[in-house]
Amino acid sequence: MIYFDNAATTQPYPEALYTYQEVATKIFGNPSSLHSLGDKSTRILEASRRQIAELLGKKQEEIFFTSGGTESDNWAIKGVAFEKARYGKHIIVSDIEHPAVKESATWLKTQGFDISYAPVDKDGFVDVDQLAGLLRPDTILVSIMAVNNEIGSVQPIQKISELLADKPTITFHVDAVQAIGKVPVEVFLTERVDLASFSGHKFHAVRGVGFLYKKSGKKIAPLLTGGGQEKDLRSTTENVAGIAAMAKALRLTLDKAETATVKIAKMREVIRDELLRYEDITVFSGNEQFAPNILTFGIKGVRGEVVVHAFEEHEIYISTTSACSSKAGKPAGTLISMGVSTKSAQTAVRISLDDDNDMSQVEQFLTVFRQIYDKTKKVR
């Protein structure tokens, strides 16, 4: 089996699974309980929070645990909207955001908020000048993803941070779900970023756990109320075992990120160079300022889902761009925003690599690709 769908989810590290099992079986008390088992859980919870904060170069009190990227995004967008509604109701998101951000913004329209969409250029990068033109006196939030999940374009977070440097009343949120271990932390978590979303299963932790970075002093309304956990901002009994496993996975990921990204980028380069040799192949992912792990391409005239299933027959697993919308059969929204035709966007498939992959798998992938390409000659 060859797994080239790591942007959808990663296989948990054995060390993370071991940590999960140890905590779940031995330190299973509720952190809110007054007895010693509760105290042990609290210590594990706060040690994990401290470790994550240190790894990101942030403060312990700036890390808030969630169930994953979708909740973190929803909380950031809706939480800021309702916290700051009395100051303004204008929100800007990019035109290529993950559905967790875009759908949250769409829902806020029904609550009286005004949403503007920052366009991207033909290569999939947010146009900072056009973003600047969308800013208004009543703008309360700007949300831009760090790494696009469909084609891998690394967004100009530093330039946007500079744009917003003298606008402290605007909250700046970054969806960093696809960024950890792929681009340096300082690239997407600048000093100007107020909120950032993360999801554990994207960096070899278990599913159902993530976190939101919230800069000290920034206010946000809670989505979940009840027990008062997470400083009364996110009520629900904490997933201590999952959180501990996530902290372990984050450390392992960042410890080897420098060498891993070099290896991954080389594999991507080999695949990209080979694909570009074929006449009826469109490569949607560029080379400069793109994440080292994501490569999106299409065979002209062949729908993406056909290609995905053709590879699956050889036990090679890829996807049709975003995993969250692939089963809906929708063309890649990012490609449409880039000006790619619907017909061409429907051919798009995404491979997403990881340090677990190697060149022998790349070679096998390319061998199978040639077979699939030849079989689609009549359609092309």
UniProtKB/TrEMBL annotation:
One of its GO terms (molecular function) is metal ion binding. Its cofactor is pyridoxal 5'-phosphate. PROSITE patterns: AA_TRANSFER_CLASS_5. SUPFAM superfamilies: PLP-dependent transferases. Belongs to the class-V pyridoxal-phosphate-dependent aminotransferase family. NifS/IscS subfamily. Signal peptide: none annotated. It holds the Pfam family Aminotran_5. This is Cysteine desulfurase. InterPro entries: Aminotrans_V_dom, Aminotrans_V_PyrdxlP_BS, Cysteine_dSase, PyrdxlP-dep_Trfase, PyrdxlP-dep_Trfase_major, PyrdxlP-dep_Trfase_small. Keywords: Iron, Iron-sulfur, Metal-binding, Pyridoxal phosphate. Residues 2-365 form the Aminotransferase class V domain. PANTHER family: CYSTEINE DESULFURASE ISCS 2-RELATED, CYSTEINE DESULFURYLASE FAMILY MEMBER.
